[in-house]
Amino acid sequence: MHSKHAEESTAPNAPIQVYAPEAARPGRNSPVELVVLDALRTRRSPRLKDLVEPGPNEAQLRDILTIAARVPDHARLVPWRFITIAGEGCDRLNAVIGDRFDMLHPDADQAKRGHARSRMTHAPLVIAVVYRPGKHPKVPELEQALSAGAACMNLIHACNAHGLGALWLTEWYAFDRVVLSAMGLAEHEHIAGFMHIGTQTEERDERARPELADIVTAF
After folding, report:
1. Helices 58-68 and 141-161, interaxial angle, to 10°?
2. Smallest Cα–Cα separation from 200: which of 53, 67, 62, 63?
3. pLDDT of residue 5
4. Residue 188: how many CB atoms within 10 A of its CB?
């Protein structure tokens, strides 16, 4: 099979040719590639308090969710879905989380009770990424969970590309079945992450990252 985009060679040291549509391949060291690589090298989660209005507009949100859904998905099971939470939705979910906190911690002081009722009020938009594994003879649940995680990471990168900050959080209420049921999740569904999205007001300093020598081995 011959293609102008990718050619097979029997030469032992022939470079590997990677297929990509010409329109989507800017070219080696193009400004677009350099910007993308720099963004990936320097990505850092923002602080929740630094995410403010404005959030994404309707067109941006649609694009962000479209990109989030473009991840590896063995057998096309789509083991994830998205719930957008903003405005009155944030107020309703705050009430659910607050009521549940009060039930679980009846002796908590007012500061902790108030904190529980403000979990969704910091960023303009929260997107809950729901992990929904299905039964399949060739796709173990671990693969499906990894696909949901990839959707979370794609969502973050898409937000950053649109000039927005995004913070991936879970917290205790992401694992509480009472809260999840109130959000409309079925028994087999879980929260992969609450993605808090807004305009980032402050850049964060770099933090220590693992040395490649400590995490990379050759087989």
Report:
1. 150
2. 53
3. 41
4. 10
Would you call 23 exposed, middle or buried from its count of C-beta atoms within 10 A (0-12, 13-18, 19+)?
A: exposed
Domain chopping of the chain, boundaries: 45-203
Q: pTM score, two decimals?
A: 0.85
What CATH code would you report for 45-203?
3.40.109.10
> In the chain, where does DSSP find H-type helix?
31-42, 58-68, 88-104, 110-116, 141-161, 177-182, 212-215
- For tokens 């590997």, name the residue: 16
What is the spatial distance between Cα 7 and Cα 25, in angstroms, rounded to a whole number?
17
Structure tokens at 174: 């992401």
Please give the angle made by the CA atoms of 101, 102 and 107, to the nearest 5 degrees: 115
Residue 130 gets which letter from DSSP? E
